[in-house]
Amino acid sequence: MTLELTGGPDFAAQAPKKARWTRQYTAVAVTFGCPARPSERTPRVWSGRGLGLPETELEGFAAQLRRVMKHEAYWIARDRHVGDPAVWSPGRYDDEDGFVYFAGPCTHGDPWPGYRPARTFTIALPRVRGLRIRVAAYLAEQNG
Question: For the segment 37-60, what is each residue's pLDDT rounded down to a tens digit?
Protein backbone atom coordinates (compact mmCIF):
# COMPACT_ATOMS: atom_id res chain seq x y z
CA MET A 1 0.00 0.00 0.00
CA THR A 2 1.31 3.46 -0.86
CA LEU A 3 0.23 6.74 0.52
CA GLU A 4 0.16 9.61 -1.89
CA LEU A 5 0.11 13.16 -0.58
CA THR A 6 -0.92 15.56 -3.26
CA GLY A 7 -1.57 18.66 -1.24
CA GLY A 8 -4.33 20.70 -2.71
CA PRO A 9 -6.17 23.72 -1.38
CA ASP A 10 -6.72 22.24 2.08
CA PHE A 11 -2.97 21.88 2.59
CA ALA A 12 -1.54 24.79 0.66
CA ALA A 13 -0.60 27.88 2.64
CA GLN A 14 -1.98 30.93 0.98
CA ALA A 15 0.75 33.40 0.08
CA PRO A 16 -0.11 37.05 0.59
CA LYS A 17 -0.90 38.93 -2.59
CA LYS A 18 1.65 41.58 -1.60
CA ALA A 19 4.55 41.31 0.79
CA ARG A 20 3.91 42.93 4.19
CA TRP A 21 7.51 44.10 4.47
CA THR A 22 10.44 44.50 2.13
CA ARG A 23 14.09 45.03 3.05
CA GLN A 24 16.89 46.57 1.01
CA TYR A 25 20.43 46.60 2.34
CA THR A 26 23.38 48.89 1.80
CA ALA A 27 26.75 48.53 3.47
CA VAL A 28 25.60 50.67 6.41
CA ALA A 29 21.78 50.65 6.55
CA VAL A 30 18.59 48.74 5.89
CA THR A 31 15.56 50.32 4.27
CA PHE A 32 12.22 48.80 5.17
CA GLY A 33 9.32 49.08 2.78
CA CYS A 34 5.68 48.45 3.56
CA PRO A 35 3.76 48.35 0.29
CA ALA A 36 0.61 46.50 1.33
CA ARG A 37 -0.92 48.89 3.84
CA PRO A 38 -3.66 51.47 3.71
CA SER A 39 -2.38 54.96 4.43
CA GLU A 40 -3.86 55.06 7.94
CA ARG A 41 -1.82 51.94 8.90
CA THR A 42 1.42 53.03 7.21
CA PRO A 43 4.38 53.39 9.60
CA ARG A 44 5.07 56.94 10.74
CA VAL A 45 8.52 58.42 10.87
CA TRP A 46 9.86 61.63 12.28
CA SER A 47 13.13 61.68 10.38
CA GLY A 48 16.05 61.42 12.78
CA ARG A 49 13.71 61.33 15.78
CA GLY A 50 11.61 58.19 15.79
CA LEU A 51 9.38 55.49 14.37
CA GLY A 52 5.71 54.70 14.94
CA LEU A 53 4.17 51.35 14.03
CA PRO A 54 0.63 50.02 14.37
CA GLU A 55 0.57 47.84 17.49
CA THR A 56 -0.91 45.00 15.42
CA GLU A 57 2.19 45.07 13.18
CA LEU A 58 4.82 44.82 15.92
CA GLU A 59 5.21 41.04 15.89
CA GLY A 60 5.71 41.03 12.12
CA PHE A 61 8.19 43.89 12.36
CA ALA A 62 10.08 42.08 15.13
CA ALA A 63 10.45 39.15 12.73
CA GLN A 64 11.87 41.54 10.12
CA LEU A 65 14.42 42.86 12.62
CA ARG A 66 15.47 39.25 13.39
CA ARG A 67 15.98 38.63 9.69
CA VAL A 68 18.11 41.76 9.37
CA MET A 69 20.32 40.58 12.22
CA LYS A 70 20.89 37.29 10.39
CA HIS A 71 21.95 39.06 7.18
CA GLU A 72 25.64 39.27 6.32
CA ALA A 73 25.46 43.07 5.90
CA TYR A 74 24.41 43.45 9.56
CA TRP A 75 27.41 41.48 10.81
CA ILE A 76 29.82 43.41 8.64
CA ALA A 77 28.45 46.78 9.79
CA ARG A 78 27.88 45.75 13.41
CA ASP A 79 29.51 47.80 16.15
CA ARG A 80 28.89 46.38 19.62
CA HIS A 81 29.02 49.85 21.19
CA VAL A 82 26.43 51.35 18.81
CA GLY A 83 23.80 48.59 19.16
CA ASP A 84 22.84 49.69 22.65
CA PRO A 85 19.07 49.85 23.20
CA ALA A 86 19.49 53.20 25.00
CA VAL A 87 19.46 55.02 21.61
CA TRP A 88 15.81 53.94 21.31
CA SER A 89 13.14 54.85 23.82
CA PRO A 90 10.85 52.17 25.26
CA GLY A 91 7.69 51.78 23.18
CA ARG A 92 4.93 54.28 23.96
CA TYR A 93 1.40 53.30 22.96
CA ASP A 94 -0.91 56.03 21.67
CA ASP A 95 -4.51 54.94 22.17
CA GLU A 96 -5.80 57.60 19.75
CA ASP A 97 -4.24 55.96 16.70
CA GLY A 98 -3.26 52.47 17.92
CA PHE A 99 0.42 53.08 17.15
CA VAL A 100 3.46 52.34 19.29
CA TYR A 101 6.19 54.98 19.05
CA PHE A 102 9.91 54.46 19.57
CA ALA A 103 12.07 57.59 19.69
CA GLY A 104 15.36 56.89 17.95
CA PRO A 105 17.52 57.17 14.85
CA CYS A 106 15.15 56.33 12.00
CA THR A 107 15.06 58.32 8.76
CA HIS A 108 12.96 58.60 5.62
CA GLY A 109 14.15 61.76 3.87
CA ASP A 110 11.21 64.06 4.63
CA PRO A 111 12.57 67.34 6.03
CA TRP A 112 9.35 68.32 7.83
CA PRO A 113 9.04 67.92 11.60
CA GLY A 114 6.56 65.55 13.16
CA TYR A 115 5.55 61.96 12.53
CA ARG A 116 4.61 61.49 8.88
CA PRO A 117 3.37 58.37 7.05
CA ALA A 118 6.31 56.73 5.29
CA ARG A 119 6.12 53.81 2.86
CA THR A 120 9.87 53.35 3.35
CA PHE A 121 12.22 54.18 6.20
CA THR A 122 15.87 53.56 6.93
CA ILE A 123 17.74 52.42 10.02
CA ALA A 124 21.53 52.21 10.30
CA LEU A 125 22.48 48.55 10.59
CA PRO A 126 24.32 48.93 13.91
CA ARG A 127 21.13 50.49 15.40
CA VAL A 128 18.88 47.53 14.50
CA ARG A 129 19.81 45.53 17.60
CA GLY A 130 18.71 48.28 19.98
CA LEU A 131 15.34 48.62 18.26
CA ARG A 132 14.86 44.86 18.29
CA ILE A 133 15.44 44.85 22.07
CA ARG A 134 12.90 47.65 22.59
CA VAL A 135 10.25 46.03 20.36
CA ALA A 136 10.73 42.65 22.10
CA ALA A 137 10.46 44.30 25.52
CA TYR A 138 7.22 46.04 24.52
CA LEU A 139 5.74 42.79 23.19
CA ALA A 140 6.80 40.86 26.31
CA GLU A 141 5.18 43.47 28.53
CA GLN A 142 1.92 43.30 26.57
CA ASN A 143 1.83 39.50 26.52
CA GLY A 144 3.10 38.96 30.05
Answer: 888 899 999 999 999 999 999 999
What angle in degrees, to the nearest 10, is found between the helix axes of 128-143 and 58-70?
Answer: 140
CA count, 13 A, side-chain hemisphere, 25:
17
Contacts of 57 (CB under 8 A, 6+ apart): 20, 41, 43
- Give the three-state DSSP class for 119: coil
Mean pLDDT in residue range 83-110: 92
pTM of the shown model:
0.83
Question: How many angstroms separate the CA atoms of 25 and 41, rounded?
Answer: 24
Whole-angstrom distance, CA of residue 50 vs CA of residue 44: 8
Q: Where are the alpha helices (DSSP H) in the chain?
A: 58-70, 72-77, 128-143
